[in-house]
Amino acid sequence: MSGCDDTRDDAAWAAAPGTAARDWEPAAAAAELAFLRRSGSPLPSMPAALAERIRRDAAVHLPRPVALEARRDLSARSGPAGGRPWRAAAGWWAAACLAGLLCWQWSGVGRIAGPPGGPVAPKTDPRPSLAELRGRLLAEDPAAVKVAWKKAGDDPAVVANKADLEAADGLGDVVWSPERQQGFMRFRGLAANDPSVAQYQLWIFDAERNAAHPVDGGVFDVPAAADGEVVVRIDPRLPISRATAFAITVEKPGGVVVSSRERLPLIAALP
Question: How far is the CA of 175 from the CAs of 7, 52, 114, 230, in angstroms?
Fold first, then answer.
């Protein structure tokens, strides 16, 4: 029979370079590594000695003249089936091209592994902390007042040591800007609270209002993980004309509209 049924063609096909299973293994490996490179997976650097050996020994694997001549004779003898040896040569050249691509990837792994310009620094939060905002308020508003907290009673919420109790601002202070209607409280030695049981509440006494009804300055918590100072933003519910004192009470969760002042651990009175 002629064409693809000729057993002589099969023998020549099996003997042609690039058709044995071992000849396709490097091509398959090169293709797989190329896909890994496109997916972003990092590749280790190729040792310089191995790269040099690949370049040196490449000529050994190029098609020999006698092999090309054998395929040419086979094509002339087998007629229409002679296209099969040419497909074998094409397969070998495909493997060679993929191997070249692999070498290029190995040589450029440093460029592929990371972005240009070195590692990217982790993003940081651009927003200033409450402590920084407090400092800015003091620096930018010369009319801002600052008054220290004093222990108002024997309340277990105050856990400061003796040295802090005796220091001028050992329990922290209040910073308030009448013009901006903004302020911050700083605490040291105020016990952490469980928000589901009780919360701290600020009261602002205004010279233009009845002292029996101070302005609610907001509810806040002192977290158990707090270490050292705790800074809290003041959030008054009404405008303050002229503050005369600030007081901290311990209230039920969510705060109250009118405090009984049964628990009044801290107070800061302006002179």
Answer: 99, 71, 48, 14
